[in-house]
Design brief:
This protein is mainly alpha-helical. The chain contains twelve helices and no strands. It has helices at 44-50, 58-61, 87-101, 106-115, 120-133, 138-153, 157-166, 171-178, 183-199, 206-219, 224-236, 240-247. The chain is elongated.
Length: 268
């Protein structure tokens, strides 16, 4: 009589391979494209909202029911011929889902509606209404952006202006928001950034230290003159060797370290 087969233990050659775990998604509360490793993980609901402004294709529409941005609201063949969705309601839902994640500029919402194939007149009607009730406020968005990105990332006026223009904020609105960031505050932040980076650099040649500090400030949008002045002061207070190097720095030589784009030349 054949022996009884032993029950599978789930271990050994006949064990099923482990199921791959989906990598968690980190939040990007600012929308700059940089992942914030200190932020909490997104929940499944937030991840669904995060994808709300992505364009839909034929595959998405055929996955079951009408696509969110399909103004016609057509169902798949054989689905029963449901009534078309109201384009205005579809546009409102798209905007509300995006605004539930974070504030958006009017241009950002208009781009999302265009990707979802919402007619321009419908989009304009919905966005005008949201302007009236305060759900869209580019001026408030710009002020909050300047405060958050300056204190959180140490960005200077030039870098902040570029980010706001990329999000479709009007130039006059950008200028008004940047007026709240005065030169004294900008200089104080630049000095704090240079001091913090210098503490983590260890021992290096004075010219290397100088180039890295100036390059870091240049990438954050600080003017060349301010960057050199701040770095000279920080080096002068560090030790005797760096102080002696700071004394011989020629501010006019900065053009050899920072190109026309504001990026430092060489290693940074």
């Amino acid at each position: 009589m054949a022996g009884r087969r032993r029950a599978r233990t789930g271990r050994g050659w006949d064990a099923a391979p482990p199921r791959a775990r989906k990598a968690p998604v980190r939040a990007d509360p600012t929308g700059s494209g940089e992942l914030d490793v200190d932020a909490p993980l997104w929940t499944g609901e937030e991840e669904r909202y995060r994808r709300a402004d992505k364009p839909t294709g034929d595959a998405a529409a055929g996955a079951g029911g009408p696509a969110l941005g399909d103004p016609a609201g057509n169902v798949a063949a054989g689905g029963g011929g449901a009534a078309p969705a109201d384009p205005t309601e579809v546009a409102r839902e798209i905007c509300l889902r995006l605004l539930a994640v974070r504030p958006r500029t009017r241009a950002e919402l208009a781009t999302a509606l265009r990707r979802r194939r919402i007619a321009e007149d419908v989009a304009a009607e919905v966005l005008d209404r949201y302007d009236e009730v305060g759900l869209i406020d580019d001026a408030a968005f710009a002020r909050a952006w300047v405060t958050s990105r300056h204190h959180g990332r140490g960005l200077a006026r030039r870098a902040l202006a570029g980010e706001l223009r990329q999000r479709g904020v009007d130039g006059q609105v950008v200028g008004a928001a940047l007026e709240e960031l005065d030169p004294a505050t900008e200089a104080t932040t630049a000095r704090a950034l240079a001091e913090r980076k210098l503490r983590g650099m260890g021992r290096a040649a004075p010219e290397v230290v100088f180039r890295r500090l100036v390059g870091m400030l240049a990438r954050k949008g600080y003017p060349a003159g301010l960057a050199v002045s701040v770095v000279k002061d920080v080096l002068a207070e560090r030790d005797t060797e760096l102080a002696a190097f700071a004394e011989i720095i020629d501010p006019d030589a900065l053009t050899d370290l920072i190109g026309e784009t504001g990026e430092p030349a060489g290693e940074v």
